[in-house]
Write a structure and sequence with these properties.
- The structure holds 3 protein chains of 3 kinds.
- In chain B, 77% of the residues lie in helices and 0% in strands.
- Chain B is globular.
- In chain C, the strands form 2 sheets. A 7-stranded mixed sheet of chain C has the order 3-2-4-1-5-8-9. A two-stranded antiparallel sheet of chain C has the order 6-7.
- In chain C, strand 6 and strand 7 form a beta hairpin.
- Chain C is globular and about 40 Å long.
- Classes of the chains: A mainly alpha, B mainly alpha, C alpha/beta.
- Chains in contact: A-B, A-C, B-C.
């Protein structure tokens, strides 16, 4: 199997995202090289494989490789299976495709979207703090910053992309060589442990950022009624935002409501 | 005008990464904000708008086909508003958020439209009238043009509208929006902390 | 047994459940009701893998599930159903939830879309009518933070 070209194609797995069958054509695009390798284009077997590979598909894009490798393997089994086994093997193909996709999505959404993405933001803010660019401060930073910001953004991209590209590549190989016994290679890495570790790391760094941020913004201001009022309003907002989270209301709405309420209040005052 | 088109094109290209092409986070508000900030010469403003947008968007995760408001659009439009129409950063941020929400409805329409086209494309693929590579290319070009047009329309509607009333905005409203803007990172950091909570407690 | 959420989701355990619902609910155990999963060894293993550590998991077919759900204990459960058919079997066996969250159903040609990822045909709709007659309410939404779409 041409691993590298298939790997590159996985970056387009969401290229035809649609509401009825999600990533179906994207998955076909990734499988296309394999189908052309195994069957003569235009032949009955090819057309049947084409239809099969256009069925509904949805998974986390980064972890999709854990489904793709297993699908390629089972496609090879199908291409060489005897007529009487074919239906059974095709049913098996469907189960492998759906279960690897769902499990990979469950792990991938937690690891990449919910953990590594925010963690990479944390690293970016830390690099900015280290270069004394106090990005949460009201004052516009005037110093030379091109290189520092470039490094901070690069840090954010690398923290996310090094593991994600490694998983994309490894997933193809592991799931291709995998089987039911080792969960199509998913068992090779301890996902839960990785997620717990990264989340804990994220929490520690976030606490640091919060305290350092308070120091930057309020450290130099003397205690007067104005600064106390501002600080208590900030605390009120943080409590409100936690409350919103509990009510499952996204916080951009808290911001929009705040802007509108303050706007109206400023006229009434 | 030429610069405006270029900025919209850059935004549209970066936005593709959200879903259709890549998912390597070139579309994250942090990157979109800094990139457009760099191009427009407002580097710090771009960076700050990017980071604030990203913090306030932490609630949204694109899981299983849910279409959240677009952080890329929010950060991009905000930076461009601030640059092209000399909009104050806190108003630009607000308009950016609104555009991000509006765009998610457009995105839903697009995905529904694709679903509608799907049977026809599947038939064409089956009959060998097109190739899957071509379908992907067309889909991505279409998405690029859609985002490009959206950004252009949003800027040409909200920008002049703002310029029209800019002089008459009372000082009080400036203070209100400014304060809500500087609440954003604190709200964002508390969401960031919650987003790292591990539940249930694992052994 | 305290059932915290009934959810119909054809994909069973995946991102929306583990990252969207579980963190926002007080749940100790997930129960999957699916005839296919109950029969397939591979699916059972993969479902366990998909669930974060620390949650209990039970996989049943619809008939067995009804008996289990009647057991009297303190467990807090999120119940995942494969499709409306599974819900109908539960109802026939005396399990009548007040609200059922509909997260995702399988797309097939001729089905109409009712909210994000939920596709229904006439057969589904008449089954839903029947269940609504038994005072079951349906709440169509993918994530806790999504807007709810009403059925019927």
């Amino acid at each position: 199997m041409k691993r590298f070209s298939i790997f590159l194609r996985t970056f387009l797995i969401q290229g035809f995202w649609n509401f009825s069958q999600m990533q179906n054509l994207g998955a076909l695009f990734v499988m296309d090289t394999t189908l052309k390798r195994l069957y003569k284009p235009g032949s009955d077997a090819y057309l049947r494989a084409l239809v099969r590979n256009m069925e509904t598909f949805n998974t986390n894009p980064v972890m999709s490789s854990y489904s793709i490798g297993a699908m390629i393997r089972q496609e090879e089994v199908l291409a060489s299976s005897k007529k009487e086994d074919f239906e059974e093997q095709e049913r098996e193909w469907r189960i492998i495709r759906a279960t690897t996709a769902n499990t990979a999505a469950s792990i991938g959404d937690r690891l990449f979207w919910a953990t590594l993405k925010p963690l990479s933001l944390v690293f970016c803010i830390l690099v900015l703090f280290a270069s004394e660019i106090q990005v949460i401060h009201e004052e516009i930073y005037k110093g030379e910053m091109l290189l520092k910001v470039f490094l901070a953004v690069l840090a954010a991209l690398l923290v996310y992309n090094i593991p994600s590209i490694a998983v994309r590549l490894r997933g193809l190989k592991d799931s291709y060589q995998g089987n039911e016994e080792n969960f199509y290679g998913l068992i090779n890495l301890n996902w839960n442990k990785a997620i717990t570790f990264l989340k804990t790391l994220g929490q520690i760094f976030t606490v640091f950022i919060i305290f350092y941020g308070i120091y930057i913004v309020f450290g130099n201001s003397s205690l007067n009624p104005d600064s106390i009022a501002r600080m208590s309003l900030l605390v009120a907002f943080i409590i409100l935002s936690i409350f919103m989270k509990k009510l499952n209301i996204p916080n951009i709405f808290l911001y929009i409501i705040a802007a509108i309420v303050f706007g109206i209040a400023s006229f009434l005052a | 005008m030429g610069a405006l088109l270029l900025f919209c094109a850059v935004l549209a290209f970066l936005e593709l990464d959200t879903t259709y092409l890549g998912q390597v986070l070139l579309s994250r508000p942090l990157v979109v904000g800094s990139a457009l900030g760099f191009l427009t010469g407002n580097f710090f403003i771009g960076l700050q708008l990017g980071i604030f947008t990203e913090l306030i968007y932490l609630d949204f995760i694109p899981i299983g086909g849910v279409v959240p408001p677009s952080g890329a659009i929010s950060a991009g439009i905000a930076v461009l508003m601030a640059h092209i129409f000399a909009m104050d950063i806190y108003f630009a941020f607000f308009i950016g958020i609104l555009c991000g929400i509006i765009f998610s409805f457009v995105e839903r329409k697009i995905r529904r439209y694709r679903a509608k086209l799907l049977p026809k494309i599947e038939r064409a693929l089956y009959e060998g009238k097109t190739s899957i590579g071509k379908v992907m290319l067309q889909s991505i070009i279409f998405q690029f043009l859609a985002v490009f047009a959206f950004a252009l329309v949003a800027l040409t509607i909200f920008g002049p509208l703002f310029s029209l009333i800019n002089q008459d905005i009372p000082e009080k409203l400036h203070i209100a929006f400014k304060f809500s803007y500087f609440v954003v990172p604190w709200v964002g950091l508390s969401i960031l902390f919650i987003s790292f909570s591990t539940k249930p407690k694992t052994d | 047994m305290k059932i915290v959420l009934f959810r119909i989701d054809n994909r069973l355990i995946h991102g929306q459940v583990v990252e969207g619902w579980l963190p926002s609910l007080d749940v100790g155990e997930v129960m999957v009701i699916s005839d296919t999963a109950a029969k397939s060894n591979l699916m059972r293993k993969m479902l366990r893998m998909a669930l974060p550590k620390g949650y209990g998991l039970n996989i049943f077919n619809a008939k067995e599930a009804a008996n289990y759900l009647k057991e009297d204990n303190e467990a807090k459960v999120l119940v995942l159903l494969e499709d409306f058919h599974a819900l109908e079997i539960l109802a026939e066996n005396g399990i009548l939830p007040q609200v059922v969250n509909v997260g995702n159903t399988k797309y097939e040609e001729g089905k109409k879309e009712y909210g994000n990822g939920v596709f229904l045909d006439e057969k589904d709709l008449s089954m839903i009518k029947k269940l609504q007659g038994k005072n079951i309410k349906f709440d169509v939404r993918a994530l806790p933070s999504s807007l709810s779409v009403r059925l019927g």
